[in-house]
Write a structure and sequence with these properties.
The complex is a heterodimer. Chain A is mostly helical. Helices cover 73% and strands 0% of the residues of chain A. Chain B starts with a helix and ends in a 5-residue tail after the last helix. Helix content of chain B is 40%, strand content 0%. The longest helix of chain B has 4 residues, at 2-5. At the A-B interface, helix 1 and helix 3 of A face helix 1 of B. Chain A: It is a multi-pass membrane protein. Chain A: The chain crosses the membrane at residues 58-78, 98-115, 121-141, 153-173, 179-202. Chain A: This is ER lumen protein-retaining receptor.
Chain lengths: 215, 10
């Protein structure tokens, strides 16, 4: 494990904690896309099917369980918690996320490392994660104003992706066996989706003003 | 094997 990978995992965890904190403290999920959160829950459930078949490390198993549990907790809050549920604006969150699920699964059927149940679901989760942020970005763009915690949530998620790319470069240079084209290419696509958001996030930070996305 | 080696990330 290198420093970029660890920092990437930590910012990923931090992003989820920021979101949970926001929902818990304000009892509101305004500005949060339920669809993106459901896609992430599907991503983790599909990718970590290997929890039952492979053991890599205590750290790995622990983090997998944390990611599955926290993503399900967020979806539960938005769908079931009476106060949080009321703040959900489904008219803003209209992205047709099932299309992303269908397209990712189709792609996984054709592009995978091995034609097995686990490998297809693993590839599916990689493709779906790459695009899962789209409903959230569209929602933010629609509502224009982004509250601080939601902005930080997306910022930490983007930072996690950027750090994973550094991690791959590091591993590519230091580990002779390191080849994982599916994850790396999808990861670069995913990070590119954040570029626009990062640009406006940086501008607002530089001007010390509230984050606003152009319509 | 190679496949497992490729799955050590989260």
């Amino acid at each position: 494990m290198n420093i970029f990978r660890l920092a990437g995992d930590m910012t990923h965890l931090l992003s989820i904690l920021v979101l949970l904190l926001k929902i818990y403290a304000t009892k509101s999920c305004s500005g949060v896309s339920r669809k993106t959160q459901e896609l992430y829950a599907i991503v983790f459930l599909a990718r970590y099917l290997d929890l039952f078949t492979d053991f890599i490390s205590v750290y790995n198993t622990f983090m997998k369980i944390v990611f599955i549990a926290s993503s399900l907790a967020i979806v539960w809050c938005i769908r079931v918690h009476p106060m949080v549920k009321r703040s959900y604006d489904k008219d803003l969150d209209t992205f047709r996320h099932y299309l992303l699920v269908a397209a990712s699964f189709l792609l996984a059927l054709f592009l995978h490392e091995k034609f097995t149940f686990l490998e297809i679901f693993w590839a599916f989760s990689i493709y779906l994660e790459a695009v899962a942020i789209l409903p959230q970005l569209v929602l933010l763009q629609r509502s224009g104003n982004v509250d601080n915690l939601t902005g930080q949530y997306v910022f930490f998620l983007g930072a996690y992706r950027g750090l994973y790319i550094l991690n791959w470069i590091y591993r590519y240079l230091t580990e002779p066996r390191f080849t994982r084209w599916i994850a790396c290419v999808s990861g670069v696509v995913q990070t590119a989706l954040y570029a626009d958001f990062f640009y406006y996030y940086f501008i607002s930070w530089k001007n010390n003003s509230k984050l606003k996305l152009p319509a | 094997d190679e496949l497992n080696y490729n799955k050590d990330e989260l």
